[in-house]
Structure formats: C-alpha cells, structure tokens
Amino acid sequence: MEIILKEDIIGLGYKNEIVNVKSGYGRNYLIPTGKAVIASPSAKKMLAENLRQQAAKIAALKAEAEKRAEALKDVALEIAAKVGATGQLYGSVNAATVAEELAKKGIEVDRKIITMRDAKRVGDYEATVHFYKEVEVKIPVKVIAENAPVAAPAVEAAPAEAPVETPMAEEPVAEEEAPAAE
Predict the structure, then answer these.
(1) How far apart are CA 100 and CA 141, in angstroms?
(2) Rounded distance, CA 16 to CA 50, Å?
(3) How do the pLDDT tens digits run along the chain, 182 residues long?
(4) pTM of the predicted model, to two decimals?
C-alpha cells in the first residue's frame, strides 16, 4: 500500500515522502495516528503542489541541518560506564546516553534522531544522528570502564604446614561410662 508520510519515521522515510508499507501497518498504525495518509492520485497532486510552494523553506531546513551536522563532524565521544567482572556493562549505552554526552559538550541533539545499537560491553560503537533526509552524521562512541573490572580473587594455596597426624582409633566407650546428657 502506498502512503504519504506526514512526519519523519526513522527506518521508514521522511516527511512528504511516498513509501510502500504493508497494509496492516498503514491502516492500523500510521493512518490512525496521523503519521501518514493514503497516497491517492489527488493526495499526490496536493503533495506535489505543496512541495513546489515549500521549496525555499525546504532548502532553508536542509541548510540548517547541514550547519548542525558540520558542528558534529569531528566529535568523538568517550562514555564511562560501570562494568562487571566479565566486562559486561551494568545497563547499556544507548541513544539517550549519547544525547546526554553531547549536551555536556554543549551540543543539543534530540535523542529521537539518534540511532545506535545498544552497547552492552566495553568497546567501540557508532551512533548516527539523522538531521534531515540526506543529512546524517556518524559519531564514533567509545565505551570505557568507569571502574576497573573486579577480578575474581585468586585461590591461594594454603601454606605448607606440618602434616596433621590423625589420632589412632580409640577403643569404643561403653554406654555406661558415657555421661548422660540431661
């Protein structure tokens, strides 16, 4: 089913784009929530006219997006996270964490336009910031251990001691001789 998107949906398309989706997704989610309309011939004509009228506005939006992308071009993030003994993170580093780190550097970016595979281990990852249709920036993200991984305590060998002699089996004590426990 062909639909016209009314807003950007990462992974599907951008505002005013005509895309093909499965009918259930379009009819049960996108259209009822107002994120898309059916791409009828009249809707396509209206879209073409609107795009022609908005060409200058779109060019300004794209220029703004390119300027914001230029600010992020040479940014590399190093995020410290708590790590367990196996190198596994407590929690994960995701798009929201990347947005917070960028805010600390003075660059405000909405977490919704950032895509990143959740980092669950220490290592190098890549976050993508989608500013506009063709304007996106890839940011290298290095996840490091905030605390040194706690190594399992080594099993120390017991100090060599003189062998303990086991007493020889004594003769069994008769019941009569054993003190009575009261």
Answers:
(1) 13
(2) 9
(3) 999 999 988 889 888 899 999 999 999 999 999 999 999 999 999 999 988 888 888 888 888 888 888 888 888 889 888 888 887 888 888 889 999 999 998 888 888 888 888 888 888 999 998 888 788 889 999 988 887 644 444 444 444 555 555 555 555 555 555 555 55
(4) 0.57
Report how far Cα 177 is from the mean position of its chain's Cα atoms. 75
- Tell whether the torsion through CA atoms of 140, 93, 101 and 60 is positive or negative: positive
Q: Which amino acid is at 94?
A: N
Residue keyed to tokens 């595979």: 117
Please report how many Cα atoms fall inside a 13 Å half-sphere around the Cα of residue 112, on the Cβ side.
4
By the 10 Å C-beta count (0-12 exposed, 13-18 middle, 19+ buried), 35 is classed as middle
- Which residues 6+ apart lie within 8 Å of 78 measured at CB? 141, 142, 144
